[in-house]
Amino acid sequence: MLSPTPRYLFCALLLCLPLAVFFTITSPTTTFTNYHQNPIVARNNHVSQAIRNLIPSPPPSQTQTQTLHPGDDGSLLRLASQVNPKPSSPKKVAFLFLTTTPLPLAPLWELYFNQAQRHLFNIYVHADPRYMYNPPFSGAFADRVFRSEPAQRFTPSLSSAARRLLAHALLDDKANSMFALISPSCIPLRSFNFTYRFLTKSQKSFVEILKNERGAYGRWAARGSTAMLPEVKFREFRIGSQFWVLTRKHAKLVVSDRRIYAKFNQTCLRRDACFPEENYFPTLIHMRDPRGSVSATLTHVNWNWSGRSSGHPRMYKASEVGPELIASLRNSRLRYGDDGSESNSSVREKSHPFLFARKFSPDCIQPLLRIANHTLLKD
Ligand SMILES: *[C@@H]1O[C@H](CO)[C@@H](O)[C@H](O)[C@H]1NC(C)=O
Ligand SMILES: *[C@@H]1O[C@H](CO)[C@@H](O)[C@H](O)[C@H]1NC(C)=O
Ligand SMILES: *[C@@H]1O[C@H](CO)[C@@H](O)[C@H](O)[C@H]1NC(C)=O
Ligand SMILES: *[C@@H]1O[C@H](CO)[C@@H](O)[C@H](O)[C@H]1NC(C)=O
Ligand SMILES: *[C@@H]1O[C@H](CO)[C@@H](O)[C@H](O)[C@H]1NC(C)=O
């Protein structure tokens, strides 16, 4: 006769464990384990096989039983909101590529990542599954695409995609310490080493946070004149570049936030004033932890051109790319907002460098590669 001694219970538990895992994998309801398989590939067979879910390491056991349906951001965000906000060592930089196209500048990023020690960075790709990715993501980007959803301008879907990127990166690696959002038209403006040292030394995020920008009221009221109330009053509303670098603490703050995001996630009534990805992050950081961020973006962009009324920044052409352009981008000064520690102008004097720049058209890749080793990726 076996009595239910602790030892017996322990053995029973061990015996049951493989069964439990088996049932988790085969059960028809979607569990976190199923989520590791490939819902995108299953749904859209035209999407490259490179598209698959990330999170190779198993999630923490206490959360393993939570259900996670494909497309269910709620569970993903909830899991990610439980991570340790302190990164483990050695710290890594997470590069979050948000795209709806193949990455035309990927060969330049390959050179950049080739300069790096593999254990100091991670790459994550969010790729709208409605599009073809030809050529498929390869090299450093192969297998780095996780479950993505449609993402388009003038809707909250771009900011939802950025939140999804943060959640995946938080769960994937506890050493991810800084999270940089990158677009397909972005280039690195410094060597990997320079960027790594600069970012991992910083205790703060870099989020452009601007107050009283032209058109701010229209943006705030784009969902209806009282739709943002009471959580986001107009005087708390901020505008800034979509491209930020967040600390792990702020990445966790973002994925844990439901109250403020519920406001920004509403459908806009006015499409031409609907830029949640440029409003949500600056507003959230301003409201929750302005001193934890330098109120400027590290991604250079040029609005000083004849076509600025189009609402698009200048797109550099191949003929413009050369050491002089890179030098002038590197020498530009950041634009600081009014929030955060940088409101103190004596701190502002100690200026920060631009680490990335946009926008570069796909045909810039050849001239960029020509100057990469000698100029672009050299300090
Ligand atoms: C980057 O830093 C690492 C470690 O400090 C060093 O081994 C490597 O040579 C550096 N790479 C470049 C391109 O400077
Ligand atoms: C945002 O809105 C979409 C569409 O209504 C919804 O499916 C999604 O769950 C919402 N996301 C969050 C985090 O509330
Ligand atoms: C804007 O561009 C013009 C023409 O290229 C230049 O003269 C001017 O200095 C630029 N202004 C700023 C603020 O960069
Ligand atoms: C601004 O920063 C400097 C250097 O950190 C500090 O000495 C000074 O007291 C600060 N001034 C204000 C108004 O906070
Ligand atoms: C740049 O450096 C990389 C790696 O060292 C090398 O493979 C490549 O051929 C170089 N490119 C040029 C244009 O010199």
Automatic annotation (TrEMBL):
Pfam family of the protein (one): Branch
Principal place of residence: membrane
A cellular-component GO term for this protein: membrane
Subcellular location: Membrane
PANTHER family: CORE-2/I-BRANCHING BETA-1,6-N-ACETYLGLUCOSAMINYLTRANSFERASE FAMILY PROTEIN-RELATED (PTHR31042), CORE-2_I-BRANCHING BETA-1,6-N-ACETYLGLUCOSAMINYLTRANSFERASE FAMILY PROTEIN (PTHR31042:SF60)
Signal sequence, renumbered to the chain: 1-31
Membrane topology: Single-pass type II membrane protein
Keywords from the UniProt entry: Glycoprotein, Glycosyltransferase, Membrane, Signal, Transferase
Protein name: Core-2/I-branching beta-1,6-N-acetylglucosaminyltransferase family protein
GO molecular function: glycosyltransferase activity
Lineage: Eukaryota, Viridiplantae, Streptophyta, Embryophyta, Tracheophyta
Disordered: region residues: 56-88
